[in-house]
């Protein structure tokens, strides 16, 4: 059972405004008083508030109707009706709120504490006092309150992270997250271990850090719903840098797709989901290099991918999260990329294939 909920649809209606009153002054000894009908109160708004510490939209699975309080009607003696209470809905930072029918984006709550009135309560109607003029001293009418806004809302949480991990199932994404942050994701040697996205804070130096998001693995056809589909790819839409992990190919592994093809499959799914994601800076990493110990590697495959990346001005990275090789360098490379520092780290990266010839 998962408690991570990143989508919800709710029906929301702000409060109606109260009606204006038609009333007259009634005072002793004054038989014909003037108008004294007060205004109706405004209806309560539907307000969304981004609250730190909230992580999912699960509350809205159980709370599918939101209703602002109606404003009170105006009364005699020029008494205003009370304003209806607002409804304040707490959501995790990173929540977007849109019209479920038209898709129109109504609010994008990125900052903790940020609040947005998404549906406005109706204005209260004017009482008859307001309509009195020099030539019309006894208006016998008032305004009704306006109805509150009403919409079906779609809430969608997109995690706020600097770097998003991307790759096939089993590539070692969660393992990397676990060795560079305090996050403790589930790790196992079968595909689709990770079922929901998870965030971790990665410290680079004492005062430098970035947020890393681990999402479930992708497979070919993900855009058409294969595997866990592309449901989680939206969490990458706000990252600044993609970190694409690919398992090292061992020579003679007939099952394995060539490295370049693996890379292309994931890139194609990314593009099908949202072309803008393919424009993000991408750091490509060959993982599990410790598995090479004593075994021949598929140098050809590695060379082909390195060449492909070089054509795009990028470098292939290598890492063994288990042995700790290349981890620190990758952390620094990611941090530099997030902060848009164009220079590669001064120290040459860890490279198990002594791949001078690849550069
Ligand atoms: N030898 C070795 N094994 C690794 C390394 N990194 C990860 N693994 C193993 O590879 C398997 C998959 O690792 P995960 O981190 O769960 O992979 P994932 O990419 O998160 O997989 P999904 O959540 O299914 O997408 C586990 O058995 C890990 O122990 C590594 O550097 N070296
Ligand atoms: Mg995982």
Account of the 3D structure:
- The protein has 359 residues and is of the alpha/beta class.
- 14% of the residues lie in helices and 22% in strands.
- The chain is built from five helices and 14 strands.
- The chain has helices at 59-62, 173-180, 259-273, 299-311, 327-338, and strands at 7-13, 46-50, 65-67, 87-91, 95-99, 105-109, 115-119, 150-157, 163-167, 198-205, 208-214, 241-247, 282-287, 316-318.
- Strands 10-11-9-12-13-14 form a six-stranded mixed beta sheet, sandwiched between helices. A five-stranded mixed beta sheet has the order 3-1-8-5-6, with no helix packed on it.
- Strand 5 and strand 6 form a beta hairpin.
- Bound molecules: guanosine-5'-triphosphate and magnesium ion.
- Guanosine-5'-triphosphate is lined by residues 167, 169-175, 187-189, 191-194, 216-217, 287-288, 290-291, 320-322.
Short structural summary:
The protein is of the alpha/beta class. 14% of the residues lie in helices and 22% in strands.
Low-confidence stretches: 344-348, 355-359
Evaluate the radius of gyration: 30 Å
**Shape verdict:** rod-shaped
Gap from first CA to last CA: 47 Å
Query: What's the helix-strand series?
Result: EEHEEEEEEEHEEEHEHEH
Estimated share of beta-strand residues: 15-25%
Q: Classify the oligomer.
A: single chain
